[in-house]
Amino acid sequence: MKQWTPADRIVAPSLLAADFGRVAAETSRAINAGADWLHLDVMDGHFVDNISFGPALIQAVHETNDVFLDVHLMITRPDHFLPRFLSAGADLITVHVEPQADHEVPATLAAIREGHCLAGLALNPATPFEAVLPYLDQIDLLLVMTVVPGFGGQSFMAEVMPKVEKAAAYRETNKLSFHIEVDGGIDPKTSRIAATAGANVFVAGSSTFGAPDMAAAVTAIRNA
Ligand code: DX5
Ligand code: ZN
Fold first, then answer.
1. Residues 155-179 pLDDT 10s
2. Which ligand 1 atom lies nearest to the CA of residue 72?
3. Are 100 and 110 in contact (CB under 8 A)?
4. Distance 79 CA to ligand 1 centre (A)
5. What is the whole-number distance in angstroms between the Cα of residue 204 and the centre of ligand 1?
6. Which ligand is nearest to the CA of 15?
7. Is residue 218 part of a domain?
8. In this predicted model, what pLDDT tens digit does every residue of 100-117 receive, in sequence order?
9. Fewer CB in 10 Å around end: N or C, the chain?
10. Is the whole-model pTM more than 0.70?
């Protein structure tokens, strides 16, 4: 599989915005439209106020194609469920830093890497950048949430861009190489704002699966 670097602009359509009655066809539609990664939002009804899908669906997606699977765990005790997502075929697993996720962050990140998966760490809009500082040398991706997680179709919060800028500056100063991902309200206009701040991975649900021309939308987000 291709080795992605922070110099790559990566578009990751979020399956949350797909037609759940046609998951295999929707996945193919995203791949044919030029998706680099597929973003999979796992919600447990505790960490966020919504329930989506779990490892069985991710495994089904994995079995139908070899697109890079970017799994975003919005769940409590991600450490407990981790082995199931590793065996489902995730390529990258992102866990949240907030105390409500109820896990030992460094141990979970280490367990993800031991499972031959890339490790991501996410922070919500209300969580300060300093919360992730101790872990930035232990991650492959930092996810700066650009909406309060739980639902697709919300508006991009430009006020979190200083966290993207701080992460990019810290990465440069400390010679690290984690990706910076943004998630929530991303479209060609907001992806440009996020890219200017330093993001290189763009998660987009409504603006890709909901677009009249998905390929044009993916390209526009990547080239914004
Ligand atoms: C929000 C999820 C997002 C969501 C984005 O909780 O983490 O990945 O699917 O959806 P849009 O792009 O519609 O804002
Ligand atoms: Zn997400």
1. 999 999 999 999 999 999 999 999 9
2. 7
3. no
4. 23
5. 7
6. 1
7. yes
8. 999 999 999 999 999 999
9. N
10. yes
